[in-house]
Design brief:
mainly alpha, 3-stranded antiparallel beta sheet
Length: about 375
Amino acid sequence: MAPTHVLRCCQRGLAWIPVIFIAMVVCWSYYAYVVELCIFTITSIGKQVVYLIFFHLSFIMFVWSYWKTVFTKPANPSKEFCLPKAEKERYEKEERPESQQEILWRAATSLPLYTRTGAGAIRYCDRCQVIKPDRCHHCSACDMCVLKMDHHCPWVNNCVGFSNYKFFILFLAYSLLYCLFIAATVLQYFIKFWTNDLQETHSHAKFHVLFLFFVAAMFCISILSLFSYHLWLVGKNRSTIEAFRAPVFRTGSDKNGFSLGFCKNIAQVFGDQKKYWLLPVFTSQGDGLTFPTRLVNVDVEQPTVTLHPEPNKSEVTVSPFSESQNRLLSNEQNTNNMVQHAADNPIKSALTDSTTVSMESES
């Protein structure tokens, strides 16, 4: 028991090495740019002031977004996705997978779940002992189920998911901006140092300026590809996991099942208010447990809406969508569907205001 605990502590300690490395590189870049370049190399006071102002703006936003990405705790499934105590005991005692699935199906009837496993079963995590919400996955590095998990990033020693995905995107954006600004402003002095075109009084800064340009250019190239890829994912409303393995709905797998259109996909990550988009503050829509999907309306297993319940059927109150879901669902699409429905069946179109769901009795 003790060796296992010691091994886990060592693993957690080693996981911080990439973060410490990034912190050391950032601290050195700050010294190299502010002291060696702006103070010891640049002679123009006006250029020094302009460079330092824009440098510190990009530096502050970069460090702020990186800090939020690293230290924002991943969001986990709520208690409603845990099996009741009695059902949990029955699940653990059952040896047949079919009987275990029956228990999970009964527990999942009251949960807003639209995705399944590849075999069509309920997604259940034996490690965390919870029914997985849509887009939730278990992270082996964090040893927990993470809502809307994208991936585990060793460079931030954290799992990127619903709670910090916006921060991660901004971290990539501001780190790219930070490196581009350094490379662009250092380039002319890099050339002068390389060609020995500067006075000897500035030769002590030669190493820092040369190495600063190489490091900034190297990080620019690596970050640009990653940033472009995640912007594409945001526009498609997919996570990295969903890009490699399409989510499976009750009607089958669909890589675009959660896509609501480009503008709504962007808003789902960055929020409705554009003035907060560039700030590393949480503005993502929803609760991470439920997500609007364009496939909900055609889901054959969803209850049908009727005005008058038929005999041997019981009425159940419908749980409305959350406010964030209502904002994301397209009103224009619903209007078009109603108009088309009215044209096909004018009698049934008068019943569109019904809020009662009918379900077959199990008698």
